[in-house]
Write a structure and sequence with these properties.
The protein is of the alpha+beta class. It has six helices and 18 strands. The strands form five sheets. Strands 13-12-17-11-10-18 form a six-stranded mixed β-sheet, with helices on one face. The protein has a five-stranded mixed β-sheet with strand order 2-3-8-4-5, with helices on one face. It is globular, with a radius of gyration of 18 Å.
Length: 277
């Protein structure tokens, strides 16, 4: 675990709307958990705040107005072991920065200090979820770990697997730098849907038939690492990172959000297997 010592602000353009926005990250009261809000008004972060079924990003419905693309920030908060914080949003969208969680993680580490080991815990029984082509299994564990399998018929994706064992160091080195991505053939549909209006090769990877545009990948398996990053950020909607070993196949934001709601609702439950279709 880590404790925030002082606040910071990062600002920039949003990926989908293209408008300027900012987030001010402030230390929270010890033991209070994660709070989100606008204009000095905060409420506990919880899965019910997420807009169901949002495509290509995660959006929160707050009292002062919705804010989208929160997943990279939340992944950095969870991956860096920050348990208590207040996240104050300015504008309709979290800045995309370089398309990864690394700028958030670097700032969080700069303004925080170790706060001891997280107390061991187990959050209920085995949970399973199937949503279309996506499948999840969450098994109680001493701490959160993630395993993601992702496959796409593209020469630069193929069939890949990524694992995160719950450590801050490996998150910063191996997960946080993975950038959001799209395949070249998807772009027309993305633009037609009014998305990625703030996108560029400075904040996203575009995978063409002959390779990534705008420069090399940061990892040979960068797309699946980013899928893991998104899953981590979406599970952080629980207001903490649930103590489960989560296995996910073909994860996406809408299904990730359903899993977060399932784990939050049953976190204090018993050990019986449960499934949600």
């Amino acid at each position: 675990m880590r404790r925030l010592l002082r606040e910071f602000l990062l600002a920039g353009r949003g990926l989908h709307g293209g408008e300027e926005g900012a987030v001010r990250v402030r230390p929270g009261e010890p033991g209070a958990g994660l709070f989100v809000g606008r204009n000095g008004t905060f409420e506990p972060l919880r899965p019910a705040l997420a807009v169901p079924g949002t495509a290509r990003c995660t959006e929160l419905r707050l009292a002062g107005g919705a804010v989208r693309t929160v997943e990279h920030l939340l992944a950095a908060v969870a991956g860096c072991g920050i348990r208590d914080a207040r996240l104050e949003f300015e504008g309709p969208e979290v800045p995309i920065l370089d398309g990864s969680a690394l700028p958030w993680a670097e700032r969080l580490l700069e303004v925080s200090e170790p706060a001891g080991a997280e107390p061991p815990r187990r959050d209920g029984g085995v949970r399973r979820l199937r949503s279309g082509g996506s499948w999840y299994e969450a098994t109680p564990a001493a701490r959160a770990t993630l395993e993601v399998a992702y496959e796409a018929a593209h020469p630069w994706i193929g069939r890949r697997r990524a694992v995160w064992g719950g450590e801050t160091g490996s998150f910063v080195r191996e997960v946080a730098p993975a950038r959001t991505f799209a395949r070249w053939e998807e772009l027309e549909g993305i633009f037609a849907a009014g998305q990625a209006r703030g996108g560029s090769l400075e904040c996203a990877v575009v995978l063409g038939p002959d390779g990534p545009l705008g420069g090399p990948l940061r990892f040979p398996d960068e797309p699946v690492r980013h899928k893991l990053l998104d899953l981590l950020g979406d599970l952080a909607l629980c207001g903490f990172l649930p103590a489960y070993r989560v296995r996910a196949v073909q994860p996406h934001h809408a299904a990730n959000g359903r899993l977060a709601r399932l784990l939050a609702e049953n976190g204090a439950g018993g050990g019986a297997d449960q499934s949600a279709q």
